């Protein structure tokens, strides 16, 4: 079997869904499990509705709910030429009713817990899959019966062993050559049946989890670009598709902000050694990227990505830095405060670290002040150059740095796996830095 995952832009309206239908029908001999995102920007709209309700503005929230309803009804009407089957109509009405009830509850309490947010967000994928499954005449499976997670609402951690067992029970019997099964990306449930989500963009992750659980021969990520490109095309328009990527390169790129793949996607695929392809829904005959374990690209730089805002903390302690145990003490503070550190660079009398921009700094700084002074630089971005021969290509570092010209590099870090070189720059200079570095990538290819 194969997994075919279609992102929000691929199922944005009735015309898009027809295109997806064509692709799925052509793949029927391969026993596809179709994993869908919510239509277009529905998840954003659901978040907006929930936050509006939380502020106490129920009419505002219900207005957003109505807009969501209209878009889905219109798509259904168009797909079925005005004759929406009763079963679908009933299902849609039930879903909209559930959404309204949830929004009323949030507005009444003026309280939006991550748990309530997940329940609300789950409606996007449940709606899109209902419509599409009906159109295809395919089996519809509630992903929450299979995708078991912990209770970390908003960014739940899946339980692969449980998912395997549940997939064998609920999905495998329905799969077979000649028919498709449709399910949702992004959403899951705890053992107690509470709805969870895997975090924004999580449908890719779902696809890989389902693929690993079912022993798929391929996980296809269908989206709006011809595969993984050498850089984000919105920033560097001349970015080119990459035909082959190693698992390690793809994982680094995703972790450092290449939005085309959810950062965790690669991990279940790596463990099960399942190739992941990234393809353009509207250009199925066009170029695409294959990500697999076998690939050894040997390129100096394969691609660039950037992530921000991040905050740089420069920790100095002239007394203690050279002493053994200093770093242990330093990281103990971060561990205790539950703050994860991204890049680290050490110097004679200081250590620079990057953390996410939204971490609570105050308690952290308070703890650190007991034994060090800390300088805080906010609004920075990490730029990552990823490539398998990055380290062994002489002079490459110098070329990258000189290409940056007047853009100041505040921190440099070579990833321990040696395929990632990360630079920290001011966030407002990150796009320009990417454009300049991309020229080096093109020349070094
Ligand atoms: P989907 O809705 O299909 O999940 P996303 O919007 O999440 O699609 O991801 C696709 C988008 O990722 C592309 O439209 C592109 O703008 C962006 N992107 C960022 N970096 C890259 C990259 N290196 N290669 C391809 N696309 C990228
Ligand atoms: N619909 C979810 C989101 O917009 C998940 C996804 O599309 O991958 O984040
Ligand atoms: Mg996505």
UniProtKB/TrEMBL annotation:
Alphabetized CDD domains for the sequence: ACT_AK-like_2
Domain spans labelled Aspartate/glutamate/uridylate kinase: 1-279
Pathways involved: Amino-acid biosynthesis; L-lysine biosynthesis via DAP pathway; (S)-tetrahydrodipicolinate from L-aspartate: step 1/4; Amino-acid biosynthesis; L-methionine biosynthesis via de novo pathway; L-homoserine from L-aspartate: step 1/3; Amino-acid biosynthesis; L-threonine biosynthesis; L-threonine from L-aspartate: step 1/5
InterPro entries reported in the protein's UniProt record: AceGlu_kinase-like_sf, ACT-like_dom_sf, ACT_Aspartokinase, Asp/Glu/Uridylate_kinase, Asp_kin_monofn, Asp_kinase, AsparK_Bifunc_asparK/hSer_DH, Aspartate_kinase_CS
Aspartokinase ACT domain sequence ranges: 383-439
Catalytic activity: L-aspartate + ATP = 4-phospho-L-aspartate + ADP
Keywords: Amino-acid biosynthesis, ATP-binding, Kinase, Nucleotide-binding, Transferase
UniProt-listed Enzyme Commission number(s): 2.7.2.4
Family, as annotated: Belongs to the aspartokinase family.
Record protein name field: Aspartokinase
UniProt organism field: Geothrix rubra
